Structures are given as C-alpha cells and as structure tokens.
C-alpha cells in the first residue's frame, strides 16, 4: 500500500497537468496571431513588449514601410508608425482607410484618399445630389500636374440630422471648394536630410493630391483620432491648397491666406484647419502646411554641427512655393497674408522680416503671438546649447561634444523617439524656437548651398525699425483676455485654486 503522501503528490500532479492543458488550449484559441504577424518579435514602440536596441537598417527605424503610390508617399496610420505596430497587427486592423487588412493579417494597399471611396472626413457627408457631380480636378503647377477634388458645402452639414421644428427640410448647396491635399513642397527630410535645411521637391508628371500628408513627429499625447492627428512620419513636408471652385473662370485673382499652425514649436499639423470653408465663403485661396517640430525642427548646438532653424526654414520654403504657384490656383501672388495662433503668429512675424520672404508677405494676422515675444526666438547661444545638452541627456545620447550628440540623434535614434521625448518641467514652457544666426561657419554639404542655412542674423525689433519688410505691409494683432488660462487648467497644482467660470473670462 502506497504511503498517503504519495497519493497526494499523484493527485496534485494530475491537477497540474489538467490545468496546463486547459490553459494551453485557451491561449491557442484567444491569442493566436494570424499569418504575417509574428507574436514574439518586440518592436520599438510596442507598449505591450520590450524595446530593442537600435539596429542600423532595421525597418522599425527606417522609412521603407512608407507606402508609395504613383510617386506619392503615404505614411501608415500613426498607431503603426508611432508605436511600432505594423500592418496586420490585430490590435489596429481596419483603423487606417488607406490600407486593407485581410484575414491573414497581410496589409494590401488600396487606392489612397478619396480614390479608394467616399471619405467623409475629406468630402463631408455623402448625398444623393453629389453622386453625379464632378469629383476630380486638375491644375498644372511649376512642378507638374496636381490632381485634387471638389468639396460641396450644404446649409445642413449632416443630411441625417433632424431639422429645426417648424422649418421645411431643404438642403441647399452653399458653395464649392477645390481641395488639393498633401502636395510635397520639399524633399523628405529623412536620412541625410535630418538636421539640415529643406530642399526643393523634384518635379513630377501627375501628383494625386487626394489625402493629407502625415504630421511631423511630436509627443504622442498630442496625436490620435480625437485630436485630428492620425498619421505621423518624418517625411512630413506637405502642404494643402483650398481654392474657390477651380473649374469656374474668374476675372480676377483671389487673395492668398497661408495658415501657420501653432503649438509652441512642439506640436500641431496642417490638417486641423478647415481651409475649404474659408475658401468657399470668403473667396480666398487658403494654404496650410506642416513644418518640422521640436528637436527635429529647432535643435541648435550653436556651431557647425547643428546650426538650427530647420522648422522655420521649412516655413520659408512653403511660403516661396506658394508664391511661385499661387496663380495656378487662381491666387494673387502679390496679396499673400500669413496668419496663425501662438507659434504660428510668431512665425508669421519672423517671415515678415526674413530676407528670404519679406518681399512676399504683404499682410500678417498675428493671433495671440508675436515675433518680438521673449519666447518667439532664442538670442542666447548658451541657452540654445544647454537646451540641446539637456535634450541629449533626456534621450540617452552622449553630450561630451556637439558632434557626438548630433551623430547620436541622426544615426542612433528614430524620428519618433526624438519627437516623443519631452523635457522635464524645470526646463520651461518654450524650450524650442528659432535661433538668431550666430557667428559660426555654416556647413557645406553636397546638395546644400551655404545660403540655404541663413534665416535671420539680426534682432527682430532692429529689423522692424529698419523697415526690413514689404513696404506695403499691413499688420493686425490680437490677444485674448486670459492668454495663460490653458497653463492653469492643465497644471494639477494650480488648477484647484481657480474657478473656471464666466467671471474668469
């Protein structure tokens, strides 16, 4: 007869075998990954797995995953780009309309933008009366033909909504705008182009401008479908043009309004401004564009390794692109207005006096910002250098020398690591900004001229006093009563001490 404790061991062993076989079956049923997605491969920004070290030419870090269609680059959904999740990942299947996902989990690209089907986020609600209307429009620019599409605006934005009681339900077409989205105004600032001025884009035969280009890398807390930024990529230098119905002849050119998004030079995107509405109802050509942000746009070591100003140089190139092509969109190149909030207002003021663009800018509308604000430009070389060193330490790069810092950021960190890195609170609210040109020899690389690096070499106030702007300039500025309210409401320490009500404003 076996001892009692042996019987107990046998019972426990049988129970363990039964439990393991049961849980193994459950794992196979509920966590099986489809073909094309390997479960155990960790990726750079996967919050569900470990982060691997940087490996040169690793597709997790390069841009080989960017979708090319007839010469037009399309980044993947920000979920796949930003967190390293790849097409076919069961967690993100079906969230990006520019990619189709089959049951095997293999991504097969479909036609981009509106070419793949009606896009309510671009074209508005679908109506029976728009089904037979003209969709595609074409414009010949300096760089080649651009294909856009018509947007029809109605007095009732939502055809399925209940109308006001007592009113007859009548939908009237109020206007038509022609939209051209995601036009590249510069070559992608990737690989060797990182931490260098923008270069003009090469020409093309047909550019299908039917969807917004990706936003520039920025902290993840500013991105997401609810915030209007679903696509992020280092290849982000795209602009959008909205003009009154391009198919109608016009006896005169429309004024041009260029919107520069705000965001403290850290976040923002061109697709968050509804330019088609302004173009339709105010008969102006509206242009919005992306520019490099954060360290990718404004890192300055105060020497030849990274002089800085890449983001503001992007803006200057976009403005010059509009000046060269405005008339092809029925715009008046001699009536160009820059406007925007916060950092956009400061940028408009800087472009107003910058030698590259001062002759182009005829009007400025500065909303809650100014080029002479203390945060709009960095004049202290040591402050710029210190900011770069703090950032380098924050992201794990050597700060022994500026060359080592820049080399690390260029070759050992992805654009999304750089964009998502944030400063500790003690650094301040506005760590990044354009810098005044310092007494350094600008670098000379193949493909870049020395003049490409120059922006502003003098104090903005001095340039204004010298009248270094368009002599026909008109300038409008505005502020709100509580400009800093956002800093209070977002601060956990200060917010409880304030009551945000009507009296506050």
Automatic annotation (TrEMBL):
Organism ancestry? Eukaryota, Metazoa, Ecdysozoa, Arthropoda, Hexapoda
> Could you name the domain of life of the organism this protein comes from?
Eukaryota
Source organism per entry reads Diabrotica balteata
Q: Does the keyword Cell division apply?
A: no
InterPro entries reported in the protein's UniProt record? AB_hydrolase_fold (IPR029058), CarbesteraseB (IPR002018), Carboxylesterase_B_CS (IPR019819), Neuroligin/BSAL (IPR051093)
Similarity comment text for this entry: Belongs to the type-B carboxylesterase/lipase family.
Name the Pfam families on file.
COesterase
Q: What is this protein called?
A: Carboxylesterase type B domain-containing protein
Where in this chain does the record put each Carboxylesterase type B domain?
Answer: 174-491
Task: Enumerate the UniProt keywords alphabetically.
Answer: Glycoprotein, Signal
């Amino acid at each position: 007869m076996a001892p009692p404790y042996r019987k107990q061991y046998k019972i426990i062993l049988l129970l363990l075998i039964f439990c393991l076989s049961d849980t193994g079956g459950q794992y196979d049923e509920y966590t099986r990954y489809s073909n094309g997605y390997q479960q155990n491969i960790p990726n750079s920004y996967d919050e569900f797995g470990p982060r691997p070290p940087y490996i040169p030419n690793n597709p997790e870090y390069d841009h080989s995953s960017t979708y090319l269609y007839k010469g037009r680059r399309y980044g993947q959904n920000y979920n796949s780009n930003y967190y390293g999740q790849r097409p076919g990942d069961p967690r993100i299947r079906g969230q990006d309309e520019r990619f189709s996902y089959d049951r095997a989990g293999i991504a097969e690209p479909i036609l981009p933008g509106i070419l793949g089907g009606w896009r309510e986020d671009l074209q508005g609600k679908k109506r029976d009366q728009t089904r037979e209307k003209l969709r595609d429009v074409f414009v010949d620019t300096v760089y080649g033909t651009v294909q856009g599409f018509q947007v029809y605006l109605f007095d009732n934005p939502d055809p399925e909504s209940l109308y006001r009681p007592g009113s007859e339900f009548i939908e009237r077409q109020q206007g038509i705008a022609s939209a051209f989205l995601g036009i590249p105004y510069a070559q992608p600032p990737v690989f060797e182009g990182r931490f260098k001025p923008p270069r003009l884009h090469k020409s093309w035969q047909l550019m299908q401008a039917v969807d917004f280009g990706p936003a520039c890398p920025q902290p993840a807390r500013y991105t997401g479908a609810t915030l209007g930024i679903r696509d992020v990529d280092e290849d982000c230098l795209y602009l959008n043009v909205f003009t009154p119905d391009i198919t109608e002849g016009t006896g005169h050119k429309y004024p041009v309004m260029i919107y520069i998004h705000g965001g403290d030079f850290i976040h923002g995107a061109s697709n968050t401004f509804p330019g088609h509405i302004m173009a339709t109802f105010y008969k102006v050509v509206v242009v919005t564009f992306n520019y490099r942000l954060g360290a990718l746009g404004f890192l300055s070591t105060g020497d030849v390794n990274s002089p800085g100003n890449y983001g503001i140089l992007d803006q200057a190139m976009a403005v010059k692109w509009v000046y060269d092509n405005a008339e092809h969109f029925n715009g008046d190149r001699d009536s160009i207005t820059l406007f925007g909030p916060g950092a956009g207002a400061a940028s408009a003021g800087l472009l107003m006096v910058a030698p590259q663009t001062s002759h182009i800018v005829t009007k400025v509308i500065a909303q809650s910002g100014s080029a002479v604000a203390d945060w709009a430009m960095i004049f202290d070389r040591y402050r710029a250098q210190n900011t770069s060193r703090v950032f380098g330490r924050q992201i794990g790069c050597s700060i022994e020398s500026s060359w080592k810092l820049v080399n690390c950021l260029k070759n050992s960190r992805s654009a999304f690591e750089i964009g998502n890195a944030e400063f500790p609170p003690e650094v301040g609210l506005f760590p990044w900004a354009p810098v005044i040109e310092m007494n350094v020899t600008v670098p000379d690389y193949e493909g870049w001229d020395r003049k490409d690096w120059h922006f502003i070499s003098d104090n903005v106030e001095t340039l204004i006093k010298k009248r270094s702007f368009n002599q026909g300039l008109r300038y409008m500025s505005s502020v709100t009563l509580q400009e800093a309210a956002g800093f209070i409401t977002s601060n956990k320490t200060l917010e409880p001490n304030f009551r945000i009500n009507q009296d506050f404003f």
